[in-house]
Amino acid sequence: MNSVAARYWHDLGDGRLQCDLCPRHCKVRDGQRGLCFVRAAEAGRLVLATYGRSSGFCIDPIEKKPLNHFLPGTPVLSFGTAGCNLTCKFCQNWDISKSRDLDRLQSPATPEMIAETALRTGCRSVAFTYNDPVIFLEYAVDTARACHARGLRTVAVTAGHINPEPRREFFAHMDAANVDLKAFGEDFYREFCTGSLETVKETLIHLKRETDVWVEITDLLIPGANDGADELDAMTRWVASELGPDVPMHFSAFHPDWRMTDRPRTPHATLVRARDIARANGIRHAYLGNVHDLDRDSTYCHACGERTIGRDWYELSDWRLTDDGRCRACGTRCAGVFDGPPGAWGAKRVPVRVAAPA
């Protein structure tokens, strides 16, 4: 396990250090860790205890992040570490994000090794995912620099629960982000995540107004918790007015996991209703997640209605866009990051090992 000096903390002068990375502001003494479990007090300084160690590497379809408007069809080298700064009872990656066993992390992987592996395996980008990358900011930023030096793009899959100053640094090194907007009520964030909706909204506004990061949003719909029509109406109205109609939204199906095994799976009809509400409120690109639905997971030109990208889960079919992302039927540009023809990676998931170049 490697420890490196962390940024964003200060000494309280009473034997405790305060972490300033996220709104929790954990206060720790030597030998103690913050709630995220990876930022710790050590010899009078705050350190990141998981720098250079990962819970695993896998080549995924970019659509799995999910990103439907960012280099469609291409492979992305994905990895995470351990821990999280939220406590979501419904976590779908709980074995990683809730892990307190740092010894399970694989052999060291430097930022340069990760970037070289992505190049060697034909990936167009590297994703910081599986657990929230804001908690390993120093490792993610160094890896992003190594990727950019080699012409690779970077993706953050995040809940956006981060303070303003580290937020600016972190996203300055990202090319795309999928932000998990878990609900649209502070009560939900407090009860189910011990987090703050307002912080996530501030992250989304920062991304859209102050950066060039391509942004998509995911909302995991949990029956009886955050799937009410009024809440979805308020959320999608806010997205359309504050972030704009071109931000894609993914309404994903919940399955019972972690500490919410008492809830049923999300009915398909609930996802369809959420998409309909979003589109009625001006969201041009609304998708269903974790289900097969070709018609509702495909991309359509907002001007003429042409199906521009056929998509069934992670598999692409129709492609009626020019290389720079314009509708072949009417010439209207589709919002997103398009660079040449689509990839043909499909739904494959391929575990890989990262090693130093021979």
Itemize the secondary structure elements and their pairings.
Blueprint: E1 4-5, E2 9-11, E3 17-19, E4 27-28, E5 39-42, E6 45-48, E7 56-61, E8 75-80, H1 94-97, H2 111-120, E9 125-128, H3 137-149, E10 153-158, H4 164-171, E11 176-180, H5 186-193, H6 197-210, E12 214-221, H7 229-243, E13 249-253, H8 268-280, E14 286-289, H9 294-297, E15 299-300, E16 307-312, E17 315-319, E18 350-352
Parallel strand pairs: 8-9, 9-10, 10-11, 11-12, 12-13, 13-14
Antiparallel strand pairs: 1-6, 2-3, 3-4, 5-6, 7-8, 7-18, 15-16, 16-17
CATH architecture tag of the largest domain: Alpha-Beta Barrel
Say what the CATH topology of the largest domain is: TIM Barrel
Low-confidence stretches: none
Strand content: 15-25%
Give a verbal description of the structure.
This protein is α/β, with parallel strands linked by helices and 358 residues long. It folds into two domains: 4-48, no CATH class; 56-352, TIM Barrel (Alpha-Beta Barrel), CATH 3.20.20. Helices cover 25% and strands 22% of the residues. The protein contains nine helices and 18 strands. The strands form four sheets. It has a nine-stranded mixed beta sheet. It has a three-stranded antiparallel beta sheet with strand order 1-6-5, with no helix packed on it. Strand 2 (9-11) and strand 3 form a beta hairpin.
